[in-house]
Design a protein that fits this description.
Blueprint: H1 2-10, E1 12-16, H2 19-47, H3 60-68, H4 72-95, H5 100-105, E2 108-111, H6 119-127, H7 129-134, H8 138-145, H9 152-157, E3 159-167
Antiparallel strand pairs: 1-3, 2-3
Length: 170
Amino acid sequence: MHAAAQLSATAPRVRVAGFWRRALAGAVDFALLAAAFTLLDVVASLLLRRPLPRFRQLGPDYLLDVAVNGDAFALVGMILFAGLALLYFVVFHASLGQTVGKRLVGLRVIDGWGERPSFLRALGRALAYSPSLLLVGLGFVWIAFDRDKRGLHDWLADTYVVTSITREPR
C-alpha cells in the first residue's frame, strides 16, 4: 500500500488538449511546412529551369490538376513534401515531445506512461496520420468527440496530447 501511495504521489497529472487548440497548433505546423516546402520548390524550379506557376494559379485546383496529369516533377514534389512532414513530426515529437505549433499553444505529446514518445512511437504516430487523412479527415475530427480527445493516430500510437504536466507534491 505504501508503494502505491508513493507512486501516485509522484505520478504526473495531465489535462488532455481540446480539438480547437490542437487544430490551431496543426495550422501553425502546416504553415511552417508549407513555407519551407515552397522555398525548396522555388529553389529546385530555378535550378532545374522549370517554370513557376503564377500566384493566381496556386490552390487546390492546381495541385489536383498537376497530380492527375502525371507531372513527374510534381509527383516528386509531393513525395518530398510528405517526407519533409514525416521528418518534421518524428524529430520534434521524439526529441522534444512537441512541434513548433504545439509549443506556441502550450501542448505536448506523451505516451501512455506520461513520457515523451520514443522514436519508434513518434514514427508510428506520424505514419498514422495517413489513415486519419484518408478517411476524409475523420481521424482528426474524431478528436472533437472522443472522451480522451484522441485522434485515430493517437489511438494507433498510444499517445495523448496534453496541455499541462504537473507533479503532485509529496
